[in-house]
Amino acid sequence: MKNRTIFYVLSKTKFLYFLSALFATLLWLAACSEEPSPAPMAGTPSPSSAPLPELALPFAQELQDVLDDGLRVTHGTGVSAAVHVPGQGTWTGVSGMSDLSTSNSIKPEMLFDIGSVGKTFTAALVLQLAEEDLLSLDDPLHRWLLAHPNIESTITIRQLLNHTSGIFDFVENDAYWRSVWGDPEKLWEPADVLTLVREPYFSPGQGARYSSTNYILLGMIVERATASTMAEQIRTRFLVPLGFSHTFSIGSEGISGELAHGHFDLDGDGEIDDMASLPRTAIDSSKWASGSIVSTAEDVARWADALYGERVLSPETMKQMLSFYRPIAEAPGGPLASGYGLGVQELMAGEQRLWGHLGHYPGYMAAMLYVPAYSTTVVVLINESNEACITHIGLGLLGVVGNHLE
User: Which of 53-57, 58-62, 239-243, 250-254 has the lowest mean pLDDT?
Assistant: First the structure.
């Protein structure tokens, strides 16, 4: 059990460090409830349900070649990807297998766990509530929640969103992994997660360090402010208006569709294990508002296009979201990204910026990347904890797009 815990934490850190270093080398960019939700305040755009264009990108075959080559070179299992270029069209592609034992191949409509990419939904929800004056980003925790050990009650909602709270990340507590692996059918409550929080990394506002505990607290505040559930709010505010039929808050609502089998080396013996037979209840319910969403590459691309295209939040709110704190660290010291805003990661590539988020769930990895200079979105979802695979494919897709946008 200890091997499982150590292997996952190290693997997660390597992935975040590896991708951060990777995107810093992309020099091509330098060249080229069923209850109705509250009505938005004036000036706040309602999410647009307009679909992305159905045109095929003229360089679609080059993109597909990247997927096929990426799996071959990195011995990957399966991948689903999407690229949207305004004025040119949208491409979706897949390659590889979902179930290796039956040779069941990946299909475009298959669901993948997107890990911490789900934080972008939580952040957008909190920001909408701020637009509606249901809460303020400068509200202290004690306005909404009871006191908890090792969590300073004066921490603000803004500090939770941009990871400047200093709160300990519960996933770094070995007891968490011993519990979720040892009792995978346990249904966790947010209060259970908070019992795993140790002493803070630093005083509020005195640094920046990524912590999923921040987003557990944000979920608790959302449910208090709306008197409903996170899943209900996300569905009512985003999924239904935007027409996302393949995105679900897993663990909180039923899903419709086939979930791609995740593959992860549970015991660190060098061989990947199919996670499909392992109950997900403990991890899904514990991750909750910090990242327990499943989706397709196309839906994630449409989400990035809507979010960063200012069809979800007002321009003023977007300015706040995109105010980045630099640098932000990922234990044990590797850089997570060049900066972190309000639920959005910033990655620098030469003089250009990428916005979006990375995600990792045992057996899955995700990258949602938006190039603001071209309003272009690249999404990569893989069904294996294989940082080399997602890095190779992400770099390849961005390279192809860059070559055609110069």
Answer: 53-57
* Cα 380 to the center of its chain, rounded Å: 11
* Predicted confidence (pLDDT) per residue in 185-224, tens digit: 999 999 999 999 999 999 999 999 999 999 999 999 999 9
pTM: 0.87
CATH of the domain at 103: 3.40.710.10
Structure-token pair, residue 113: 């766990």
Longest dimension (CA), the chain: 57
d(CA 216, CA 72): 38
Phi/psi-derived region of residue 337, left when phi > 0, alpha when psi is between -120 and 50, beta in every other case = beta
Total Cβ atoms within 10 A of residue 94:
22
As a whole number of angstroms, the distance between CA 249 and CA 256 comes to: 11
Instruction: Read off the amino acid at residue 382.
Output: I
Distance from C-alpha of 221 to C-alpha of 279, rounded to nearest angstrom: 28
Helical packing angle, 2-23 and 174-182, nearest 10°: 120
Residues 6+ apart with CB under 8 A from 27: 349, 350
- Number of domains making up the chain: 1
- Helix orientation angle between 2-23 and 387-405, rounded to the nearest 10 degrees: 20
Do residues 181 and 3 lie in contact, with contact meaning Cβ atoms separated by under 8 Å?
Answer: no
- Report how far residue 50's alpha carbon sits from residue 251's, in angstroms, rounded to the nearest whole number: 28
* 257: amino acid identity, one letter: G
Q: Both tokens of residue 116?
A: 């911490």
Which residue type does 202 have? F
Which domain covers residue 286, as residue numbers? 2-405
Structure tokens at 368: 């949602």
